[in-house]
Amino acid sequence: MDNLLWIFVSALLVNNFVLAYFLGLCPFLGVSNSLETSFRLGLATTFVMLVTAVCAWFLNAFVLVHAPYLRLICFIVVIASTVQFIEMLIRKLSPALFRAMGIFLPLITTNCAILGLAIFATNRGYGFWEGVVYALGAGIGFTLALTLLAGLREESELSDVPALIRGTAMNLIVAGVLSMAFMGFAGLFSST
Amino acid sequence: MKKNASYEEFVKGIWRDNPVFAQVLGMCPMLAVTNSAVNAIAMGMATMFVLVGSSFLVSTFRRVIPKQVRISCFIIVIATFVTIADYTLLALVPRVHKELGAFIPLIVANCLILGRQEAFASRYPTKLAVMDALGMACGFLVALFSLGAVREILGDGALFGIRLFGESFEPWVIMILPPGGFLTLGLILLFFNWFTQKKNDFLADVAGSEGRGG
Fold first, then answer.
1. Of A62, A139, B90, B147, which one's alpha carbon is 20 to 30 angstroms from that of A145?
2. Is residue A129 part of a domain?
3. How far apart are CA B67 and CA B65, in angstroms?
């Protein structure tokens, strides 16, 4: 139980996928201009991560033992089809939500945080529940980082920033400061 | 003329349309592996191999690949080349492979590569596509190297493992840690913006004075 909690908090804060591992930066920098969209995208990504973690565990346990060199191709096909499946599901169940998500849904396929999750979980030899908890922590951590940056960006729209630094340069520097703040969480585990 | 066109495709990727500085693509490996110059170069080379290889294949078979499933086809082609690169690095330079770790398989999800397949290789003849891929990969390599060199010099006081400063130099450890990556890239982008703006101002100035003179 302790182990599962550790995995969760570690993926959520200490080794945050975006701010410590630099995964999923494209949506992090591209989509984070409004709080609302960031939150929705974060939720969708968390869901894809959960499904991917489960599928990756099955693949690792039953298929890839025989052919380890197919790992990468298998994972990417699983992710692409999961995203496709979710897209169809959301379109059928809630057309309003589908319209709100727009282009961001298919783009989840090329989010390296998801492929990274599958690869990290495999490399560390996580079991089924460990993998699921890890995916949950990573997904919520991704949502957290995305909404934090979106909030900061919405605030900075109102302030007087020189034209030269506006845009990606400023977002990166803000992300650097956020990342520095998240490094403080590394102290959570040093005493135990 | 034909030689000129392919040369043009090659050069544009290095500075004007630099994938990192101008288009802000492929950020994840860009920031994750640039804590030393050697890692940055290894990553750049691996990306170059994958990009040129998959551009060549995609462009050769561009009339055969059906429109509806093209993204999946591109991804599978890219994943194949990445697997080759992964195993080659493991065999040749196991130390670098260990340091880059999970980031070599993650080349698959580098939006730069998929972006070039979609925007260029699937529309143009093989020769141009390969030149374009080479140029983009060189631009990516330049960007990776400049970020890696800055971070290693400031964060470790060394370049390629060779000490540059005397004993009294206190390394900025933060530069090797994740925040340093964000900060350095932010500042480099700032410089790139400033340079482009200066150049545009200069061109506008020249055009203006010519207009007055004539």
1. B147
2. yes
3. 6
Give the chain B residue whose CA is nearest to the CA of A25. B28
CB spacing of B109 vs A168 below 8 angstroms: no
Is there a domain that residue B71 lies in? Answer: yes
Give a yes or no: residue A44 inside a domain.
Answer: yes
Expressed as residue numbers, the domain containing A115 is 25-158
- Tell me, what's the ipTM? 0.77
Whole-model pTM: value is: 0.81
Are B83 and A69 a contacting pair at CB < 8 A? yes
For helices A128-158 and A35-58, angle between their N-to-C axes, nearest 10 degrees: 160
CB contact under 8 A, B28 and A112: yes
Structural domain span for residue B22: 2-150
CB contact (8 A) between residue B111 and residue A110: yes
Does some domain include residue B203? Answer: no
Give chain A's domain count: 1
Nearest CB neighbour to A120, from listed B87, B102, B179: B102
Chain A residues 137-166 within an 8 A CB cutoff of chain B: 164-165
Q: Which of A26, A114, A172 sits opposite B182 (nearest CB)?
A: A172
Does residue B181 lie within any of the structural domains? no
Classify residue B183: in a domain, yes or no. Answer: no
Q: Which two tokens stand for residue A17?
A: 């996928």
Please state whether beta strands B158-159 and B162-163 pair in parallel, antiparallel, or not at all (unpaired): antiparallel
Say if CB B121 and CB B82 are below 8 A apart.
Answer: no
What is the Cα–Cα distance from B167 to A28, expressed in whole angstroms? 40
Number of domains forming the structure of chain B: 1
Q: Is residue A163 part of a domain?
A: no
Tokens describing residue B97: 């492979």
Amino acid occupying residue B116: R
Instruction: Tell me the pLDDT of chain A (192 aa) as tens digits.
Output: 578 888 888 888 888 888 887 887 777 777 777 787 788 888 888 888 888 888 888 888 887 777 777 888 888 888 888 887 877 887 888 787 777 666 667 777 777 788 888 888 888 888 888 888 888 888 998 898 888 888 888 888 888 877 777 777 888 888 888 888 888 787 776 544
